[in-house]
UniProtKB/TrEMBL annotation:
Keyword line: Chromatin regulator, DNA damage, DNA repair, Nucleus, Repeat, WD repeat
Origin species: Melipona bicolor
UniProt key word Metal-binding: no
Stretches for region Disordered: 393-421
Name of the protein described by the UniProt record: CAF1B/HIR1 beta-propeller domain-containing protein
Domain CAF1B/HIR1 beta-propeller: 1-383
Length: 532
């Protein structure tokens, strides 16, 4: 593993607030292989970089484009999964979607040293009232969600360039948003100390968590006690960038805290890991001691389980690796153990703001408010062997999207779903409930495949309901028609209508007497008139 911090002025020595790496590698006209980066800074510029590395660990970055349409600090930059759109959000409540100019991917001119790549503003999304802090794309790149200081998260339709829904039930700044890889949920993290899980279709909060019982030793003072899980608005960062794992099974949330039961004890900072099926209690606590956690990003590669490693904490047939940015360190974890597999510390003078992975999982970049970015490189196989897809395939997002209650395919994945829960454990206290009356047609027109996948009792109950509906005696009913046409009213009905007589007009009485003149005396009138 190599860690280098290029001594270049990324954003004129202003804080670098966000960084992202585009999916896939690219080649220049000179057949030079590079990664494309995007950074957003407090200088209101979005910069596009080319990153090249060699086997000795040396990293070189070159600025190839400067996108200048923003007028305030840029808090977040994110490439779409489709690789063709870049989204950036700023302190002016604006989100700009950028596209690289077609047929001009590498505009090379020896006499022009400014921009080697041409990017254009594709869409401008306006809907927030305050600073935009975080952005997350949908897996199909057709939508995105943004979080803002105006206490809202907004779902955007990228093609139409307009908002689809405004999620306004937050009571504080929305500092982190994440889109489920299975395309079912959106998760948000706010300064109101609540992490929410929102259904994409209904736009309603399905689960939320702000306090829970955490796993502790038997002699711990907070054993079996319900404690708050997240920092309040005294959190020392603008961002709480949470993320789903790449298979969608886990939700990893920074800004966690374990408050002591007594004032003499120290506050413990932590990152919390939840199951998508149950947000009531965390499945893992990843302590970070004196440093609060700010951002989490998952490596996009599945890895084989370590044969000589500990028993997996989470029963999965593969390992997932994720990086956590604290105030001054980058901690790398996997799903096989609760202790970090690597810690990179003392690489920046001030706090970190964001982290990003390359699509091959061998490059990790961290940005900081000191105006620099650190590039961490891993050798091939250093993090482990890449997971070979066989019978035990990672979770299928399409299957979950079609039926969230259907167990995952594969024998080992099926065991995982049974251990965690076959269905989502909904927190009724947090859910917006709609009461819908089911009728006979809905019972009889259910999908037969869904009925067969469930227990036979459900099918028997459906048949019994059908028979009960048939055996019921029909009630005597009368059809009533409302007639609004006056011509269709019968004569008998007209006879019963009472007509009110017309009132006679009374003529106005005009008096013959002339009106009397009265002299008006005011406070400003002369005294002579007042004496008279």
């Amino acid at each position: 593993m190599w860690c280098t911090t290029p001594e270049i002025s990324w954003h004129n020595r202003d804080p670098v607030l966000s960084i992202d790496i585009q999916t896939g590698v690219h080649e220049t006209l000179e057949n030079e292989v590079f990664w494309r980066l995007a950074t957003g800074g407090a200088d209101s510029h979005v910069l596009i970089w080319h990153l090249t590395t060699n086997e000795s660990g040396a990293a070189t970055v070159k600025c190839v484009a400067d996108l200048e349409r923003h007028h305030r600090a840029i808090n977040v930059v994110r490439f779409s999964p489709s690789k063709d759109i870049l989204a950036s959000g700023d302190d002016e409540s604006i989100i700009i979607l950028w596209k690289q100019k077609e047929d001009c991917e590498f505009f090379v001119n020896p006499n022009e040293t400014k921009d080697k790549e041409q990017w254009i503003s594709y869409k401008v999304l306006k809907g927030h009232l305050e600073d935009v802090y975080d952005i997350s794309w949908s897996p199909d790149s057709n939508m995105l969600v943004s979080g803002s200081v105006d206490n809202t998260a907004i779902l955007w339709d990228v093609q139409q360039g307009r908002s689809v829904s405004i999620l306004s039930d937050h009571k504080g700044f929305v500092q982190g948003v994440s889109w489920d890889p299975c395309n079912q949920y959106i998760s948000t993290m706010s300064t109101d100390r609540i992490c929410r899980l929102i259904d994409i279709n209904t736009k309603k909060t399905v689960q939320k968590v702000y306090k829970a019982k955490i796993p502790t030793p038997a002699d711990h003072p907070i054993k079996n006690k319900t404690v708050r899980l997240f920092y309040d608005d005294t959190f020392k960062s603008y961002f709480r960038r949470l993320t789903f794992s790449i298979d969608g099974l886990l939700l990893i949330v920074p800004s966690g805290i374990i408050e002591p039961s007594e004032t003499t004890e120290r506050i413990s900072n932590t990152t919390l890991v939840f199951s998508r099926y149950n947000l009531k209690e965390p499945v893992m606590l990843l302590p970070s001691l004196d440093e609060c956690t700010i951002a989490v990003r998952c490596c996009p590669i599945y890895f084989e389980l370590q044969k000589d490693g500990p028993t997996p904490v989470i029963a999965l047939p593969y390992r997932m690796i994720f990086a956590i940015a604290t105030q001054r360190s980058v901690m790398i974890y996997d799903t096989q153990q609760i202790s970090p597999i690597a810690v990179i510390s003392n690489i920046h003078y001030t706090r970190l703001t964001d982290v990003g992975w390359s699509s091959d999982g061998r490059i990790l970049i961290a940005s900081s408010t000191d105006g620099y970015c650190s590039i961490i490189q891993f050798q091939k196989g250093e993090l482990g062997d890449e997971y070979k897809k066989g019978n035990n395939t990672p979770i299928n997002s399409k299957a979950i999207h079609n039926d969230s209650k259907q167990p995952m395919s594969g024998s080992s994945a099926k065991d995982v779903s049974e251990k965690s829960a076959p269905t989502i454990d909904i927190d009724n206290s947090a859910m917006d409930i709609e009461i819908v009356k089911s009728e006979e047609k809905e019972i009889l027109t259910e999908n037969p495949e869904c009925v067969l996948n469930q227990d036979n009792k459900l099918l028997d109950n459906t048949i019994d309901q059908k028979n009960d509906l048939k055996n019921k005696e029909p009630e005597d009913t009368e059809d009533i028609k409302l007639v609004y046409n006056e011509e269709s009213i019968t004569e008998s009905t007209k006879a019963n209508i009472k007509h009110t007589p017309k009132k006679e007009k009374i003529p106005l009485i005009i008096p013959n007497r002339k009106p009397r003149r009265v002299q008006l005396i005011t406070l400003s009138s002369p005294r002579e008139f007042k004496k008279e």
